[in-house]
Amino acid sequence: YKRVTTKSLVDMKKNGENIAMLTAYDYSMAKIVDGAGIDVILVGDSASNVMAGHETTLPITLDQMIYHATSVVRAINRALVVVDLPFGSYQSDPKEALRSAIRIMKESGGHAVKLEGGKEIKESLKRILHAGIPVMGHLGLTPQSIYKFGTYTVRAKEEAEAEKLKSDALLLERLGCFAIVLEKVPAKLAKEVAESISIPVIGIGAGNGVDGQVLVVHDMLGMTHEFNPRFLRRYADLHTEMTKAFEGYRDDVKSKSFPSDDEQY
Ligand code: KIV
Ligand code: NA
Predict the structure, then answer these.
(1) Ligand 1 atom 8: the closest Cα is on which residue?
(2) For 176-205, how does the pLDDT look when each residue is reduced to its tens digit (9 = 90+)?
(3) Domain boundaries along the sequence of the chain
(4) Assigned architecture for domain 6-234
(5) CA pair distance 5, 102, nearest whole angstrom
(6) Which residues are catalytic?
(7) How many helices (H) and strands (E) does the chain have?
(8) pLDDT tens digits, residue range 77-131?
(9) Where Mg(2+) is bound, by residue (predicted)?
């Protein structure tokens, strides 16, 4: 396998090849995602929702993110592994931000970190980048700020927020980020941002004018039945498949048809 690097992602944008990114939080899933040729695996703080069952991404801790990231890194042959800095691990001050990023790099073996925000976290971004740690930005609907937004609806529909987003994207490029996630913003704005910078813009609910796409793996596999945003395309119906499997097993155990003669010693 030729490993994906932050540089190869920037080259992919140059060559017009879109980047395929998915989340993963554990070894077994990451092994399948990596084997399928997904370019970037994000150890997202969405683990707080899909793995731990929290309503928001705020509760997950740095230690928990490192546990997930360590499990993912053990499975990877090719993909670039990006790890979210969780809420509270980088907002207080730039030194703490760098310490958190260093812990992720040293303890998990991940290849890069992702932080939510633009201008507000400029000094933290600088410090982390100056330490040689690759950074992916994240703008638009940044879920760690959900209590500020008060809603999960599309961001930057108004002129002022769209202008700030555009200048934040330019700032992230100028500081040296290797890519930016743009979440839930109008497709026209996302395309404009992608065309204004040379680093890849990876969208989720940001239309088809960007340089790549990311989805939460449990969502695209159809494991999360209750979650139905417009941007989500389901590539499997694992909720139905898994329910069938569990019911089949339950029935076989109850009826004593499992194990059969061939399935015992
Ligand atoms: O945590 C996450 O899964 C993310 C993606 C949705 C971009 O940040
Ligand atoms: Na995230």
Answers:
(1) 44
(2) 999 999 999 999 999 999 999 999 999 999
(3) 6-234, 236-265
(4) Alpha-Beta Barrel (3.20)
(5) 19
(6) 183
(7) 11, 8
(8) 999 999 999 999 999 999 999 999 999 999 999 999 999 999 999 999 999 999 9
(9) 45, 84, 116
